[in-house]
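Justification of resources, computational component.

The compute hours requested in this renewal are based largely on the per-chain cost of generating structure records like the one below. Each record pairs the submitted sequence with a full structure-token output. That output is archived, and it is also reused by downstream analysis tasks.
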Amino acid sequence: MNQDVANNYHARMRRVLDHIDAHLDEDLSVEVLAAVAAFSRHHFQRQFSGLYGIGVAAYVQLARMKRASYRLAFRDQDGVLGIALDSGYEGPEAFSRAFRRLFDQSPSSFRRAPRWEPWHAAQSPLVQARRQTMTFTDDDVRIVDFPDTPVAVMRHEGDPALLGDTIRRFIAWRRAAGLPPRVSATFNVFHDDPDDTPAEQYRLDLCAATARVASNPDGVTSGVIPGGPCAVLRQIGSSDDLRAASRFLYGEWLPRSGRELRDAPFFAQRVSFFPDVPEHEAVTDLFLPLSPRT
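The structure output for this chain reads:
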């Protein structure tokens, strides 16, 4: 019974995080969020910070600023004024001051050339809080027969903290090639574990499904994600941190499954993206290649 009570408590608090993600443009006062959780206003702030290690007001600001930074870095069609207003500020000056305090860079400078180290440091409390909501069971895993999939590949080599720069180049190439995510599925192929690989040796492929890649100066090449049986685990929510999902697949599901691994890399399909959808609605499917049953 105690576990049921704890699960209910955590579910009510997760409901708050989902509400924040879904209503970043709206009133996210303590009163509103306490009502979402059905907790007393007098205690809710301490409950939130006690569970997630960050104050609720700071969490809301980080969530809004994360969306703003994604739009600045990856959605160059979005104007700074609109981003500022959507972030809850009356104008670009107040937004710029708050953005600089958090990320040590002005919004316009971040748009031109993001400095990812201070960005990751500022976002760390948000990542840590959301990590607590990522739990999985064996019932979440399904087995599929993944087909050979031709892809365009842009490889990121080096510090995983700088992956955002490679993503920016890949987005620009996809736009020029007429292969946006709505017409070409998006994959990431993980060649290395970021926790067990020297930063300068880390490799990850950004991929867009396509059978033809024209000659280009951007380093995009043709490749194939090899087909075969795969265990698939869907992560719904932030895709910044896939550690909990990958550790569950490798460390828990695989030993219990009786299956063997195929000599092919671990990969993911980005089914829907933040900030195009609210972060709690983002969908990432992780594929663990398996040997065929004999």
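Residues 151 and 210 are 5 Å apart (CA to CA). The two ends are 43 Å apart (CA to CA).
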